[in-house]
Amino acid sequence: MLAIIKAVERFHLYLYGLRFTIVTDCNAVVYAVNKANLNPRVARWTLALQNYTFDIVHRPGNRMAHVDALSRSVAHVDELPLERQLEFLQLTDPKILDISKKLELEDSDKFALVDGLTYTKIDDELEFVIPESMIINIIRTYHDEIAHCGAEKM
């Protein structure tokens, strides 16, 4: 029921003033919307829906496999190993490609070529040279998922 409330609130601009149909596989929700005596929480939810003109219809879950698939975990997808992905992305990055071609001809104090991957030398350690195409994704990953919680995630 709460999912219906949240969805209707989210799409308020599109739904308000129009007649629409809510299709659910939960028979209890259909019953709750049409019942007179409800517990206070469910009563508040149905009260929130009274501003809208809608029909609510029950459809068994086995007839809504397409929707059920959206809520299931994604099966394991075969991907290239990370090293192969990085190698491919480095080979498509013009700057890194230029560096690796120079490394094939002569050694460098700043860079190293190891197993087809280009590394930068920092304090006697090798660090992977990030392809330009990965920079935004890396920043987004560390910013959105790790570093900053933000108001929505707290």
Describe this protein's structure:
This is Retrovirus-like pol polyprotein. One of its GO terms (molecular function) is endonuclease activity. It holds the Pfam family RT_RNaseH. Residues 1-52 form the Reverse transcriptase RNase H-like domain. With 154 residues, this protein is α+β, with helices and mostly antiparallel strands. It has 2 domains: 1-72; 82-147, no CATH class. It is built from 9 helices and 5 strands; from the N terminus they run H-H-E-H-H-E-H-H-H-E-E-E-H-H. It has helices spanning 2-10, 12-15, 27-34, 40-49, 65-71, 82-92, 94-105, 132-147, 150-153; strands at residues 19-24, 53-58, 111-114, 117-122, 125-128. A 3-stranded antiparallel beta sheet has the order 3-4-5.
Brief synopsis:
This protein is α+β, with helices and mostly antiparallel strands.
The low-confidence runs, each spanning 5 or more residues with pLDDT under 50, are none
Tell me the major beta sheet: 3 strands, antiparallel
Number of helices: 9
Neighbour order of strands in the largest sheet: 3-4-5
- Helix/strand-derived category reads alpha+beta
Determine the fraction of residues in helical runs and give it as a percent range: 40-55%
Domain Reverse transcriptase RNase H-like: 1-52
Pfam family, one: RT_RNaseH
Organism: Lasius niger
Protein name: Retrovirus-like pol polyprotein
